[in-house]
Design brief:
mainly alpha
């Protein structure tokens, strides 16, 4: 039809263009096609000031939301009732839609009010969507803490790396002064002295990978350098990737709505660093950066060296305390003697054992994950990632090439390859979902929209239903949120002869 001259900019009586209808039915692949191939407008308003993003948020089509945000649709645009897409997602209780919008947005998106003075969180609470209201409230607190203008925001951006430097150097000085060179302890033997100074050496050397890990690029993925605000009108398709195989395959979850990129499969957007990181493992506040593909080797080396250093220094300190010839034989008297004469060495042993327990646990977890070629993020979100599920929805890691190969690859290259050992055949239908036309008189309601994540929904017509309940956020802004009859055409409003989508 488009090749024969059909126009995508034509509107119906409600001001709906093709992009509106595609968003209303969750047709993500079709929306991507008409925007990239036929230059359809993904951010056009209907008669009520609502964009396709408003509709996708209201209906809960998270993949549509990701695509529209990737296409630079305005997330903060308010319709004639003052509602943003986040307002409508909150009204409907669409948690995944709210999550995508919040991840892509700023604090202002959470505090903007509609014409009645209600924020998205207040609307969700008023509608009794407790989980959504809790999520939005928590998100606002987190964004307040991450605000770079506040003290907490600046502190969170700085991280705990300076504090860790201070702790390591303080313990090292305490160890040298109160254990190795303590004036009230016997002189070190040659063998014990060798171990004592090896511990100092390992601690000092371990600071090198610590510094490298905290300062180097963890694997940041290059963001889209094109500025959509300054893009020429005749070059709109430079803003997006027209033939990206990931998008053509319908893998919408790999869209980063913040960086405006199609990220690799094992990457993730870090909310603290505000960047997508390749092979994202976790954000470590103690090194003030993410742990990813490019700095994980230094991170593991730092952990390993410090574990060895703490084991040696702790053993030397305990040996020095226990072999003090001046200590009394009874436990009570011995404890008082150590607390009075060797308080520095005792404090070092306590701090060393406390830190050692946490670092050993972290090192073992990281070593186990390297042996299986899996990240902390993947283990924490195993049910969210399709590629980690095999036949029967059972856990399956396609990147696990065996402990020997995984470890050798990491030790030699510094990272594990993203090479799948076995690719399971795809069962999802790829392509553009089309709505079949129906002739004759249409019923009052179109129901049964499928919420498949790939956007290829199908429509079923119920010819027996004449009334449907739904939420009506109408012009007089009654936020009582009582259930009302909805007779509007594919929309939030009323009074039209076209069939209506059920808002229930």
């Amino acid at each position: 039809m488009l090749q024969e001259g059909a126009r995508l900019s034509v509107t119906d009586v409600n001001g709906y263009q093709t992009t509106h209808v595609a968003a209303q039915y969750g047709q993500t692949a079709f929306l991507y096609h008409i925007v990239t191939k036929w230059s359809a407008n993904p951010d056009v308003c209907d008669n009520n000031g609502r964009t396709p993003l408003h509709w996708a948020a209201y209906k809960g089509f998270a993949d549509c939301i990701r695509l529209l945000l990737y296409l630079n649709a305005s997330r903060g645009r308010q319709d004639k009732q003052g509602c943003t897409p986040l307002h409508w997602a909150a009204i409907r209780g669409n948690l995944e839609a709210c999550t995508v919008l919040v991840q892509a947005g700023k604090k202002d998106d959470l505090i903007v009010s509609d014409n009645t003075g209600l924020t998205p969180a207040q609307l969700a609470a008023d509608k009794n969507h407790k989980q959504v209201a809790l999520f939005l409230g928590t998100a606002r607190k987190l964004l307040d803490r991450q605000d770079g203008k506040s003290f907490l925001g600046k502190f969170s951006k700085l991280g705990l790396a300076p504090l860790l430097w201070f702790i390591i150097l303080l313990l090292l000085m305490t160890y040298i002064h109160s254990v190795v060179m303590a004036p009230n302890l016997p002189r070190l033997t040659a063998g014990l002295g060798l171990f004592a100074w090896i511990g100092v050496f390992l601690t000092t050397v371990g600071l090198v990978p610590f510094y490298r890990c905290s300062r180097m690029d963890p694997g940041y993925i290059k963001i889209n350098i094109h500025d959509p605000e300054n893009m020429k009108d005749e070059e709109p398709l430079l803003k997006i990737e027209m033939n990206n195989p990931t998008l053509l395959a319908g893998n919408w979850s790999q869209l980063c709505v913040t960086c405006k990129i199609v990220r690799p499969r094992r990457s993730k957007h870090c909310s603290t660093c505000d960047r997508c990181v390749e092979q994202f493992d976790h954000h470590c506040p103690w090194v003030s950066t993410c742990i990813g593909k490019k700095n994980k080797w230094d991170f593991i080396l730092f952990l390993g060296l410090e574990v060895l250093a703490m084991l040696l220094t702790g053993a030397v300190a305990l040996t020095r305390i226990l072999t003090d010839p001046m200590a009394p034989s009874s436990f009570g008297a011995w404890w008082n003697h150590v607390g009075g004469q060797h308080i520095g060495a005792l404090s070092f042993v306590i701090a060393d054992l406390f830190i050692l327990s946490g670092v050993v646990a972290l090192t073992c977890v990281q070593a186990s994950q390297i042996a299986r070629n899996i990240t902390t993020n993947e283990l924490a979100n195993v049910m969210r990632y399709d590629y980690l599920r095999g036949p029967g929805d059972q856990f399956h890691n396609p990147y696990d090439h065996g402990c020997k190969n995984n470890c050798s690859d990491f030790l030699i290259k510094g990272y594990n390859e993203d090479i799948e050992l076995l690719e399971a055949p795809s069962t999802e239908h790829e392509g553009i979902g089309m709505i079949q036309p129906h002739c004759g008189n249409l019923p009052n309601a179109i129901v049964g929209l499928s919420h498949k994540t790939n956007g290829n929904a199908h429509v079923a017509i119920d010819v027996n239903i004449s009334k449907h309940d739904g939420y009506n956020h109408c012009s007089h802004h009654d936020h009582s949120h009582s259930r009302k009859i909805e007779s509007g055409p594919l929309g939030f409003g009323r009074n039209s002869a076209r069939p209506a989508v059920v808002f229930g």
